[in-house]
UniProtKB/TrEMBL annotation:
<dbReference type="InterPro" id="IPR016151">
    <property type="entry name" value="DNA_mismatch_repair_MutS_N"/>
</dbReference>
<dbReference type="GO" id="GO:0030983">
    <property type="term" value="F:mismatched DNA binding"/>
</dbReference>
<dbReference type="Pfam" id="PF05188">
    <property type="entry name" value="MutS_II"/>
</dbReference>
<keyword id="KW-0067">ATP-binding</keyword>
<keyword id="KW-0547">Nucleotide-binding</keyword>
<dbReference type="GO" id="GO:0005524">
    <property type="term" value="F:ATP binding"/>
</dbReference>
<dbReference type="InterPro" id="IPR007695">
    <property type="entry name" value="DNA_mismatch_repair_MutS-lik_N"/>
</dbReference>
<keyword id="KW-0238">DNA-binding</keyword>
<keyword id="KW-0539">Nucleus</keyword>
<dbReference type="GO" id="GO:0006298">
    <property type="term" value="P:mismatch repair"/>
</dbReference>
<protein>
    <submittedName>
        <fullName>Uncharacterized protein</fullName>
    </submittedName>
</protein>
<dbReference type="InterPro" id="IPR036678">
    <property type="entry name" value="MutS_con_dom_sf"/>
</dbReference>
<feature type="domain" description="DNA mismatch repair protein MutS-like N-terminal">
    <location>
        <begin position="21"/>
        <end position="131"/>
    </location>
</feature>
<dbReference type="Pfam" id="PF01624">
    <property type="entry name" value="MutS_I"/>
</dbReference>
<keyword id="KW-0227">DNA damage</keyword>
<keyword id="KW-0234">DNA repair</keyword>
<comment type="similarity">
    <text>Belongs to the DNA mismatch repair MutS family.</text>
</comment>
Amino acid sequence: MSASTSALEDLPDVENREQQAFVKFFRGLDSPEENTIRLFEREANGSVYYTFHADDASYVAKHVYETTSVIQYWYGDHTTGLPTTKLTNKAAESFLRDLLLNKHMRIEIWKFVQNGWQIIRRASPGNLQDVEDFLFSSTHMTSAPVVLAIKYNVSDDNKLVGVAFADTTIRQLGVSQFIDNELYSNLESLIIQLGVKECLLLAAGGGREEKDVEGHKIRGILERCNVIATERKKSDYDSKHIAQDLNRLLEGDISVEALRKDLIYCMCIIYTYILFA
């Protein structure tokens, strides 16, 4: 997508004192998850616009304006200042839809609330709830995005895979566990069949990155299928309270305890999905 630089003429400059305070705040932020774009909502003359900073500013300059001449440097020059670009509200909406639906990226929208900047909306290809009214109120979506939560375990030559997913259009929660082959062909087929947009995986840590050969294979599958991987902490895979959580979600006369015995490996994965959604 591209936008005209002429639209920038109507966007105000931020005063130097405000730039100084923001640059200090921004440089103190923790790094976001991989493939995340942060934008900051601002208002001037009754209109909303957004600013992007650092690497995100360069991304917008390249992919929206197709020129680096739109980059400003807040509270400094090109070596010391904070690279900044701006988008009008209309241009930002189109840009963010493209990020989520086509570029498979995450977004964080920040706004100054009371005495500080706060995240007011988060979204990823598989979780659009925070931005549905903002980005898709006038755009028809043919289907809801599918998120797949995965857990895997290797014992001898057996590769046990457990998955959980939900289809919000037909209000269906699905779970499955199966033995897969060396290439995880069954998992890949399932991802393609469901049209998965995002996958939840246990975060690698404590030196596991190099040793987690199976996780590396699965991430390779996700990359080939254009599915974004979202890491979850170990505590998100705790199934202690899953029975009561499922009883709140499911309708009809369903025996959760029977499901636990039949698909016990999947129970913690359902809990992971519930926390994410």
